[in-house]
Amino acid sequence: MPDADELVANALAAVRGTDVRQAERQLDQLMVGTGAADGTTAVDAALLRRLVRGLGRLWPRGWQPVDMDRITSRRLDARAARLVRAAMGAQRRDQAEPVPAWWDDQLRDLVATEGGADGSVLAGWASREGLDRADALRAAVDTLALVESLPPIAVLRPPPGTSGAALPRTAGTARSGSPMLDRVRALLAKAESTTFPAEAEALTGKAQELIARHSIDEALLAAGSERGDLPGGVRLSTDAPYAGAKALLVQEVAAANRCEAVWSDDLGFATVLGWPADLVAVELLYTSLLVQATAAMLRGRAERRPGSGRRTKVWDESFLNAFALRIGERLRAATDAATNAADQAAAETAGAERLLPVLAARGEAVRERLDTLFPGVTRHRLSVRDAEGWSSGTSAADRASLDVGGARKPRQVPGRPDPR
Q: According to the UniProt record, where is the region Disordered (predicted)?
């Protein structure tokens, strides 16, 4: 009789193949177990060991806990994502090598309710999900197959177990609990909830002003240090529907905040590279503007004339692309105004020649980081096929609040659409 590790390996190989009957037979073998008195427990432990091992191999290849949660939810379902959370929690409890604080912060948010230890992890997860043993084993093997199939992605921050000399030091993220960010979030929450466009614009305009000033202050402070950090990065979800339009919105918001964005469409995210304060701005802006764009799109869809032509999906895509481009123009104008005001203020003090060279140097560092992490990046042009949707999306962007708030097909920077 095969041992537990062999049973798991056989089930995994069968699931990866095309013979459905063979896959079911191997799952039946998992159900039977090793034939020993503790055969079921042994199978659970073997599944967990292999899942934990697979996750451990992904960390040096660029994946982070939040990435695993997102890709598992996208490719499988929320139930499988909760199994991955439980496995990540089990791995962390047994991890001996050094783990950076930011890693624990991500895990803490994900695995707070995903307890369990050793062989009880799988059984505990199945019980919480209300799964019988057959369905639990099937879901666990599918999850393991996904984990072991994921490709390398850009390493944005040193992973657990990496010595300080192994990878260049990257800048961290701005403090999530800072008073300034708390004020920005409060302003954005009010802007998103109000039904009065003028009030929303005033609230989010103030938020943009706060974050822009903070970004400039951070740049000047960093110019006086000798840390030699590299720009950091974050990944933002661009899932369907309208993934291309979401990626374009990320691109426009990133460019307005001195960041660079690369879209990995097959993995469902865009990677944004930049300095901490700017990355925070991009994440808050993108999240808030996506809410506003979606709400405006639904309102515009409802206001369309009956029988006004093209399909709803075509209209929606055109709307969202136009919204993204127009918002990008407004954001860049706001950034330029804040920069010019700060430069004029510096010209009246001893720092007359400081600001613009500092910003230029930081922008060049971001571009160099882009070339290092994504040497083969390509530009992808999006097409717009509905003039009415384009016009409506542009108008909605003019009304929106300026807030802050391998063998695969990756590395696409969305280009500007060509309306027709």
A: 386-420
